[in-house]
Amino acid sequence: MIDSDGFRPNVGIVLMRQDGQVFWARRVRRDGWQFPQGGMNTDETPVEAMYRELREETGLLPEHVEVLAATPGWLRYRLPQRAIRRNERHVCIGQKQVWFLLRLVGDERHVQLDLTEAPEFDHWRWVDFWYPLEHVVMFKRGVYARALRHLASYAEQVAGIQDLPQALLDSLLPDPGRRRRPARHRNGPRCKEAGVGQEGAPRPGRSGESGKN
Hints:
CATH superfamily: Nucleoside Triphosphate Pyrophosphohydrolase
Helix content: 10-25%
CATH topology: Nucleoside Triphosphate Pyrophosphohydrolase
Number of helices: 3
Radius of gyration: 16 Å
Distance between the termini: 14 Å
Structural class: alpha+beta
Number of domains: 1
CATH architecture: Alpha-Beta Complex
Order of helices and strands: EEEEHEEEEHHE
Oligomer: single chain
Number of strands: 9
Largest sheet: 6 strands, mixed
């Protein structure tokens, strides 16, 4: 389900090991690297969607991780115009996400990228906590900055992460005094990705339709 502003519910996963480094994966048949993420089914809560996406994209089970924190509300990003599909009934201009910080408590040998018939990733590695801010695709950098800034204090409680890169965060995050309401779209495509913003906390019940994006 795409909401009235054109955003589709989605979950993002920051998987961290004990030393504070995070799971970073390359998308199949693409050069881009990112955190695991995916759309929510209509009958899922954010937590349920997170565990499903974790299994589908990394092969890990709930017993392999510990949930340390989650963002308290939706974080949004907009798709670039070239990625918006203009030939479908409902316009999806981006994603609204709940982000989870997980600590790996199992052995990393349990990571299996080819568990499904259509894997999302074909390679992975561990990187420093703040590394993704400068290496994810440009249109996701704002939402990554918001998510990591919120989750950093929880990560620091269990691992020694690098100091907050304040100058970089300031360059990626908009001035709160100039936040704009998301544009409403009446007709158009279905979604893959998108801008940054935040609204009230997601309801624990039903949400959206599944998708990898």
